Amino acid sequence: MNQKINWKDNLYLAVPFVIMFILYQSSSMTYEEQSLLVTMESVLDKQPFYNFFSSIEFFYGGELIAIQEIGYYSFVEFFIRKGAHFFTYFWIGFFWLLGLRKRVRHEWLTILLSVLLAIGYASFDELRQSFNPGRTALMADVLLDSAGASVGVLLANILTRKK
């Protein structure tokens, strides 16, 4: 904690707030406003990898995810959306750790705070979505966000750890 805080540390701390603000705006939108289906239908009109994807099916949030169940474009959109969940929270966790590392005395506490702040916001965001038309709150999304944040925190910790 005796390390001097510089402008980069303040910038690192600002990044999660910027991302969370963008997520806040995004969560206020309906599913239809965010849908990628029309774009994907024109870009992926020949349905590349259809045969490969058609053999994949699993449950997520109590819903069967399979091309036969939800259609090719919705299937691809599912992975884009869930990838966005993971990587958005990856960066939130990553930058929480970078922003807090010189402000918190103990490394373990910095890691814990970074993960808990990200999980707390993921929970808040999912709860907020439940009040918007056409949106649902899924515990599975909070878990996915938590995994992304945890990986981001761990990677940031590894990259900044002193030898």
Order of helices and strands: HHHHEEHHHH
Total of DSSP H or I helical runs spanning 4+ residues: 8
Number of strands: 2
- Shape type: elongated
Helix content: 55-70%
Q: Average pLDDT across residues?
A: 93
Segments where pLDDT lies below 50 for 5+ residues?
Answer: none
Strand order, sheet with most strands: 1-2
Q: Alpha-carbon distance between the termini?
A: 17 Å
Report the sheet-strand fraction. Answer: under 5%
Plain-language structure description:
The protein is mostly helical. Helices cover 70% and strands 5% of the residues. The chain contains 8 helices and 2 strands; from the N terminus they run H-H-H-H-E-E-H-H-H-H. Strands 1-2 form a two-stranded antiparallel ribbon. Helix 1 (7-27) runs parallel beside helix 7, helix 6 packs across helix 8 and helix 7 (107-129) packs antiparallel against helix 8. The two termini are 17 Å apart.
List the helices and strands and how they pair.
Layout: H1 7-27, H2 31-34, H3 37-43, H4 50-53, E1 57-60, E2 63-66, H5 67-70, H6 72-100, H7 107-129, H8 139-160
Antiparallel strand pairs: 1-2
